[in-house]
Design a protein that fits this description.
With about 425 residues, the protein is of the alpha/beta class. It is built from ten helices and 18 strands. The longest helix has 15 residues. The relative contact order is 0.11.
Length: about 425
């Protein structure tokens, strides 16, 4: 089964909690706090694998969770960092955030890509000791790992894309110029999945050609098979448009040519401007008048034109040479630029951004980034509350409350926790 688009859920591991511990050893006075830090949660990493050619495995498993980091221990022992979760995908897979549509990774090369970052481990209480606070009874919890619903889309890495109506000879052409062996028969939609073949031009020189199946009029709107596979033309540096110049099925070659180009433009306007070579196939069945008329039309449009008869190999060598020469002048295969902003960076940018409003005499503070700081507060521990108060002061929240006229004894609500304001 050829599957080239799936949606899955990934979650990086949470960081381990910091430890609250005190050094107790015989003959050692005032050992002090020695709680260790929590370990880092595992990242979710995507890695391209050339042994894979489809995303079918993700049809049956759609949730991928990395391990959490281990909590810290006494004696300043740090918790174990969790191993990364490596997800292997076919080369050419583009990973997008399903919510925003932004590109998170393009697995076109050998380098792995971290898509969800594991949470940092929390600090143990040894970090919070000061000359005036020698026995801190609180620690910092581990931060949660990033969690996303991601869309995986396979876009084949091919230099050349063969496009054209069904049964015009694309598969036959590919089988004649490469070692690929697509199914060939005299009926429409014989080829049901994209087929790649390596075309050798000379010693040490070759290119990859893809047979893109099922393009007919209306393909961009879901007619036929073409809408399933148009995405695989996206990366192609050059399009070879195969046309049945004989009109053997009662269609007009000019109409076929314009129809397919219209579908490419509807799917992605950039495809309309992609370099294109026209291969007029089935010349053995065409009259000289048909060949001359179609050649004149194509060359008037400014496209290179080649006559071929794919089953017997006629005209194929000049076509392959022309493709190779054209590829030498074109930029490399397109890679998608990552435009996703990691959650950690978004949180950093949003830090100290807050909103305060008053309802029924209660000052309500809204600031999601305060959740980790509030999570480490022991409401029964005075030093822990002092630490949280310093966070509020450094972030500017207390200054804003005072500007709004808050008085001693007034109620402040932060993330559904209510506090009495004391100067």
């Amino acid at each position: 089964m050829f599957v080239d688009k799936v949606t899955i859920k990934v979650k990086a591991g949470n960081g381990g909690n910091g430890s609250v511990a005190f050094h107790r050893e015989k003959y050692v006075a005032a050992g002090g706090p020695d709680g260790g830090d929590g370990g880092r949660g595992g990242n979710v990493v995507f890695q391209a694998d050339t042994n894979l050619s489809t995303l079918v495995d993700f049809k049956y498993k759609r949730r991928f969770f990395a391990e959490n980091g281990s909590p810290g221990g006494g004696g300043r022992r740090s918790g174990r960092n969790a191993p990364d979760l490596v997800i292997r995908v076919p080369r050419g897979t583009v990973v997008r955030d399903a919510a925003s549509g932004r590109v998170m990774a393009d697995l076109s090369g050998e380098e792995p890509a971290v898509v969800a970052r594991g949470g940092k481990g929390g600090w143990g209480n040894s970090h919070f000791a000061t000359p005036t606070r020698q026995c801190p009874r609180f620690s910092k919890p581990g931060l949660p790992g990033e969690e996303y619903e991601v869309e995986l889309e396979l876009k084949l890495l091919a230099d050349v894309g063969l496009v054209g109506f069904p049964n015009v000879g694309k598969s036959t052409l590919l089988s004649m110029v490469s070692a690929a062996r697509p199914e060939i028969a005299n009926y429409h939609f014989t080829t049901l999945t994209p087929v790649l073949g390596v075309v050798k031009v000379a010693e040490g020189k070759s290119f990859v050609m893809a047979d893109i199946p099922g393009l007919i009029e209306g393909a961009s709107e879901g007619v036929g098979l073409g809408h399933e596979f148009l995405r695989h033309v996206d990366r192609c540096r050059l399009i070879v448009h195969v046309v049945d110049v004989s009109g053997s099925e009662g269609r007009d070659p000019v109409g076929d040519f314009e129809s397919i180009n219209a579908e490419l433009e509807k799917f992605n306007p950039e495809l309309a401007s992609r370099p294109q070579i026209v291969a007029a196939n089935k010349t053995d069945m065409a009259s000289p008048e048909q060949l001359a008329a179609f050649r004149g039309y194509i060359e008037e449009k400014g496209y290179p034109f080649y006559e071929i008869c794919a089953p017997i190999g006629e005209g194929i060598e000049p076509l392959v040479y022309a493709i190779s020469q054209k590829l030498d002048t074109l930029p490399p295969i397109r890679e998608y630029e990552v435009d996703h902003v990691p959650l950690e960076e978004r949180e950093r940018l949003a830090r100290n951004v807050f909103d305060i409003h008053v309802e029924d005499g209660v000052y309500i503070v809204e600031a999601d980034w305060l959740m980790p700081a509030l999570g480490m507060v022991d409401m029964d521990d005075y030093e822990s509350l002092q630490y949280f108060q310093r966070v509020l002061r450094q972030s500017g929240i207390i200054d804003r409350l005072e500007e709004m006229g808050i008085q001693e004894g007034d109620t402040v609500s932060i993330l559904n926790f209510e506090f009495e304001y004391i100067r």
